[in-house]
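Quick one: structure tokens for this chain, please?
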Amino acid sequence: MAAKAFPNIKPSSRSYSPGTFPQRQFQAQNGAVTVMRYSNQRVNSSLRLGFSNITDAQAADILDHYRNVNSDWDYATFTTANAVAGVVSGDMQDYIEEVGALKWRYSEAPTVESTFIGRCNVSCSFTGFFDGN
């Protein structure tokens, strides 16, 4: 398992969710609630990137990245040159880059929508998985 840097293409849109802590809630018949926390690490963060009006060559770079990451069960990394571009706060950058134990993997294949000759829109979805390291 190795990191594969996402192509240096800046997204037009981005949505991020930090995920949750794995836990289970149990409720007794009298209404008392007990929570069993299974880890102190977040899991299942999500990141959705939208790229508008990019070239077909850039879309092909994203599709190549998808193939390279998934052919060996590797993971994607992001920097301020790509997915984190435009995020001003260093603290927020750390979340999107997932500085820590979570690794970004594609949730699904990227979707490509042709808009004009040589131009398209691409959407990518990622999930942050905890690999136990």
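Residues 3-130 form one domain.
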